[in-house]
Amino acid sequence: MAMSAGYIPFHPNPSKPKYRPPAGAVDAHCHVFGPESRFPYAPERKYTPCDAPKEKLFALRDFLGFDKNVIVQASCHSKDNRAMVDALETSNDKASGVAFVGEEVTDGELKAMDRAGVRGVRFNFVKRLVDFTPREVLERIAARVAPLGWHIVIYFEMPDLPEFEDFFTSLPTTVVVDHMGTPDVKKGVDHPRTSGSTGSWTGTRTSGSRSPARNG
């Protein structure tokens, strides 16, 4: 299957960084893609990546000197979490996961993902990557995962924050701001949508991304 035009695949022979992470360091945001022959990409996806399966991820983790991964469900796989869960189950307890689910997910499926190492769900508001999900649906999903102790990862683009901020702060779990809120770094650290945009929120974390492209 051909990649989307402009998609940047992973480097086949990356250089070894001079920086050495401390013992126990965690790569807090990464993805597995496919392989498409085993874990097909979703028909409704907005982009098609190159295959980047768990074996590539684990090899990169070791090459970079990380101890563990947080594997976030990629939007090109939509609500089919099998590739991510398979990676968790074969990680030798070196990975946790963040799933993407719909309201139709069963309690049994949530518990199975919890046993595999899933510890959160992702709410994606990036309009170029996903279709709109009604807020009331997301509220019902949040209420179901909260008793599991899961957190909610929110993926949005900074110009859209005013539209969603009240909803984000109403969620009943710890909230993780994905891709550090995707600020426009050209505006500098003192711009109101770069500095402290979520600083007044309680129970909030941020996560970065090493993704080679702007998709996720």
What does this entry look like structurally?
By secondary structure, the chain is of the alpha/beta class. It has one domain: Metal-dependent hydrolases (TIM Barrel). The chain has 5 helices and 7 strands. It has a 7-stranded parallel beta sheet with strand order 1-2-3-4-5-6-7. The two termini are 18 Å apart. The relative contact order is 0.14.
What is the CA-based Rg, rounded? 17 Å
Low-confidence stretches: 209-214
Q: How do the SSEs run, as a string of H and E?
A: EHEHEHEHEHEE
Largest sheet at a glance?
A: 7 strands, parallel
Number of domains: 1
Report strand %: 15-25%
Helicity level? 10-25%
List keywords for this structure.
about 220 residues; alpha/beta; TIM Barrel; 7-stranded parallel sheet; 7 strands; globular; disordered C terminus
Can I get a quick summary?
The chain is of the alpha/beta class and 216 residues long. It is 23% helix and 15% strand.
Please give the structural blueprint.
Layout: E1 26-30, H1 54-64, E2 68-72, H2 82-89, E3 95-99, H3 107-116, E4 118-124, H4 135-145, E5 151-155, H5 161-170, E6 175-177, E7 204-206
Parallel strand pairs: 1-2, 2-3, 3-4, 4-5, 5-6, 6-7
